[in-house]
Description:
globular; alpha/beta; Rossmann fold; 6-stranded mixed beta sheet; 4-stranded antiparallel beta sheet; 9 helices
Amino acid sequence: MLRIENLHVEVGGKLLLREVNLEVGEGEVHVLFGPNGSGKSSLAMAVIGHPSYKLVEGRIFFKGVDITEKPVHERVKLGIGVVFQNPPRIYGVKLKDLLNKLAGERELGDGVLKLIDSLNISEDLLSRSVNVGFSGGEVKRCEIAQALATNPDFLILDEPDSGVDLENLELIGRELSRALRGKSALVITHHGHILRYLKPSRAHVMIRGTIICSGEPDRIFERIVSDGYRWCEKCSLMRRG
């Protein structure tokens, strides 16, 4: 579904990603761990094609198509969706109207109505400008609803469990567990709370802009919980040596 080969990415002349190799198969959910500032969000931006993230080396393939040079809208049309860590406020655009547009409908259809209900999105939120005055949990729930409304083949979730309380985490986790059945996804997380609800098939750890190890999700997560990212730092230094 997604194949990344020897990816190097820079922003403003600074190299943020180097030698990134990753492959996510059809119907697979992978999780990407890493400390803050390790390059996880930069990888999400590079895959979706954000123009500020310049690919200086490497290729990105999606469903067998080389999308390295394709703009954002073409990647979205091919079936890539993203839940951003810090989505913008959109003044003057009601959430309801945006969901309609994303779902390709004039009025809220059954699929979107089910999303709204399962994510506990109130009528008040639907009638307000997107993310304006929303709490952290409301922003996350509404961002996930927007991404799922497009029914993407591949979903990138950038820190879906960051800045949300336990109640919102349960709502988000339960809906993502349902929505990702049979789908492909890359879940980016620092502390791994979302794994209470998702069962990824493979895990990766990113340190200093590169993926240093991959393996069984539970084993990697247990090691991170017990030792933090210090053991990953040691692996990274050994590789550089």
